[in-house]
Amino acid sequence: MTLKFVLLTMICVAALAAAQNQDFSKVDIKVTKVSGNIYMLQGAGGNIAASVGEDGIVIVDDQYAPLADKIAAALKGIGVTDKPVRFVINTHYHGDHTGGNAPFASGGSTVIAQDNVRKRLETGGKAGIPKAMERDQPAAPKAGLPIITFENDVTVHLNGEDIRALHFPSGHTDGDAIVFFPKANVVHMGDDFVTYGYPFIDVISGGSVQGIIAACDKVAAQLPADVKVIPGHGQTSSIGDVKEYSAMLKETTTAVQGAMKRGKKVDEMKKEKILAQWDAKYGKGSITSDLFIDTLYNSLTNNKNAPFVKHN
Ligand SMILES: [Zn+2]
User: Fold this and answer.
1) CA 194 to ligand 1 centroid distance, Å
2) Distance, CA 200 to ligand 1 centroid (Å)?
């Protein structure tokens, strides 16, 4: 196993397997106020958004099971309410965003997610980039399965906010939801927007770069310019950051498309470093230039590995 592969599993793809090797006793949960009554919690795994108010707490994503007690304690520490976490909304099925489902559900929370999140958590299966980076994603325990699922969208009306989870098809996976807090003017993008460099796109689980571009562009067009953006991983960002990221995805897609038209094989694209002009800014994370070429190529050739992919 290469170091890059190990790092990547920590971020996303095989979070459950990685979780077993990670020492969660050393992880602290950092709480940042984002806007109004919306907070961001960071520990290990994906960012958590929390709506904390007199009706109780709603969280978006829940990192790993061994962190659930620390997350609950950090939420209590915000001090606005001693009411429990009533709802957990999952942005997608990966274990670094859903690992805490079972302990939160056991504590009385109701887990909500898009239909395909539940299907994938229930069965487990392969995840990643075909041939380049494949991983087995184990099934989740029954207690960790979402109890309420939706096809297109769902709204939770609590704390004076209409917390809306909206499904965007075939982006990071085929079960992505972006979660809007319109009153506080905050959005949690899940892994459709990340700040660690080239994004990991789970093509095997029905993801595609085209879906991510569509999601980012729709969000950028509809939300106010000053909306606070919580990425799936990384620090809070602006809508300008989302637009810049989407532009990079379009330009790199065009570069791979052009190479394909010229009859280039994937290995030749890598040898010729066709993404060189973006690598300095985006190629230093866990998804290298070569892995991103694999990702774009697989997105463009419409990989058919995804059994649950659904377009609406
Ligand atoms: Zn993910």
Assistant:
1) 10
2) 7
